[in-house]
Specification:
Rossmann fold, Dihydrodipicolinate Reductase, domain 2, Alpha-Beta Plaits, eleven-stranded mixed sheet, six-stranded parallel sheet, elongated
Length: 436
């Protein structure tokens, strides 16, 4: 049987890894796919600098359109990144009747609705397992393995940079800025780390997972994002004293009012398995009504790990090349005409518990004023931890854990607390989830 020819756009970290995995495991992959997979052509902007793979026998070009327009190529593998030229190339490939594999989470999260509609029209597939959590096959697990379940919620550590920073802060009592600088030196964080530490990267991935979990259109612009740059060492220590760990989570939950779609620092009980996922590793916890909780753990980035997911997508497409397009696995798990435009809840309507750190003057009646404000807003207190004054300056850190309350009530309470003359700094608020 004739080989399936693929074209790769981008020979950076993931592109080189994809070439290496396809070459190294060629025999095993062809046994699984039923046909030989041939890397026919590859495009990259710069062939003067060394690549992380051997390119012998591969047609090379600096023009990505040459690959997309090549009539011999059946599958285009987009590993350029971004939402500019990558979107144009993917649309061109679809128009040409070619299947597409991509690791581009921003492209899928922001333009997936458009791309999937065009792919449906042309009878081709867009595969994107590598766009979420690197080598962890979470898309396939939710789309196929959990197809018999109503997925109730999911929570994931889906950015390795943020997880590395929080792990170092906890284990080595280091400050955020110090660990971020090391993460940049190690190559875990970019020179501009905003996408990682402010939750944008995680929100791209969460948007994709939520669509697959709940059968809703991709709606990245409605995702709530909050970063970890304000997490202080004292928050990490206080959380540990109270039996919790702080993780930067992406959380999606279906409620009667709508879908929660949020990324933010979160206190979770230290005994939860996901609380013990450290360093640059990723993990996603999915709650299904039939199976219960399932946890998916592994490398969320890296050359070979991400290439593993890219190659798996290529194999899936090769297996289904002769399949009726109407009978292929839907891009977002649900049939295109069965997607439901369930509203995304604004953060003010989300119900959760809270950790509050309040720096106040060490005076009588201060705690009573604070608890009174919380009571007025219908907020019940779970625990209070009052620390010793810091540096003999008369300022006392008060830590309060609350029971569940709608966020708008907490917003109102925090505004009133910060207006007290005895409260000298902004209140630090971290949401809490039991994930039980």
């Amino acid at each position: 049987m004739q080989s399936v020819k693929i074209g790769i756009l981008g020979l950076g970290t993931v592109g080189s890894g994809t070439v290496n995995v396809l070459t190294r495991n060629a025999i095993e992959i062809s046994r699984r796919a039923g046909r030989e997979i041939e890397i026919f052509q590859a495009a990259d902007r710069d062939f003067d600098s060394p690549k992380g793979c051997k390119t012998d026998g591969i047609k090379l070009t600096t023009d990505a359109l040459e690959v997309v327009n090549n009539p011999d190529i059946q599958i285009v593998v987009e590993l350029i990144g971004g939402t500019g030229i990558a979107r144009e190339l993917v649309l061109k490939a679809i128009e040409s009747g070619k299947h597409v594999v991509t690791a581009n989470k921003a492209l899928i999260a922001m333009h997936g609705n458009e791309l999937f509609a065009k792919a449906q029209e042309k009878g081709v597939t867009i595969a994107f397992e590598a766009a979420v959590a690197g080598g962890i096959p979470i898309i396939k697990a939710m789309r196929e393995g959990l197809a018999g379940n109503k997925i109730e919620w999911l929570a994931g550590i889906i950015n390795g940079t943020g997880n590395f920073i929080l792990t170092e802060m906890r284990d080595k009592a280091r400050d955020f800025a110090d660990v971020l600088a090391e993460a940049q030196e190690l190559g875990y964080a970019e020179a501009d780390p905003e996408f990682d530490v402010e939750g944008i990267d995680a929100a791209h991935k969460l948007t994709i997972m939520a669509s697959i979990a709940f059968g809703i259109p991709l709606q990245f612009e409605k995702a709530y994002t909050e970063g970890i740059s304000k997490i202080a060492q004292e928050d990490v220590q206080c959380a540990a004293e109270l039996g919790y760990r702080i993780k930067h989570l992406g959380i999606a939950k279906e409620t009667e009012q709508g879908v929660e779609l949020r990324v933010h620092p979160t206190l979770i009980p230290h005994r939860r398995l996901i609380a013990n996922v450290d360093g640059v590793m990723n993990a996603v916890l999915v709650q299904g009504d039939a199976v219960g909780p399932t946890l998916y753990y592994g490398a969320g980035a890296g050359s070979d790990a991400t290439a593993s997911a890219v190659v798996a997508d290529i194999v899936d497409i090769v297996r289904a090349l002769t399949t009726d397009p109407e009978n292929r696995v839907p891009h977002l798990a649900f049939q295109p005409d069965a997607l439901v435009d369930t509203p995304i809840l604004p953060m003010s309507e989300v119900v959760t518990s809270y950790y509050l750190r309040i720096h106040t003057e060490d005076k009588p009646g201060v705690l009573a004023n604070i608890t009174g404000i919380l009571s007025e807003q219908g907020i019940s207190i779970e625990a209070i931890l009052q620390k010793q004054p810091e540096d003999h300056d008369g300022i006392v850190p008060i830590i309060i854990l609350t029971q569940e309350v709608v966020e708008k009530n907490m917003d109102a309470a925090i505004s009133q607390i910060e207006a007290l003359s005895t409260v000298k700094e902004s209140v630090m608020r971290i949401r809490m989830e039991s994930l039980g």
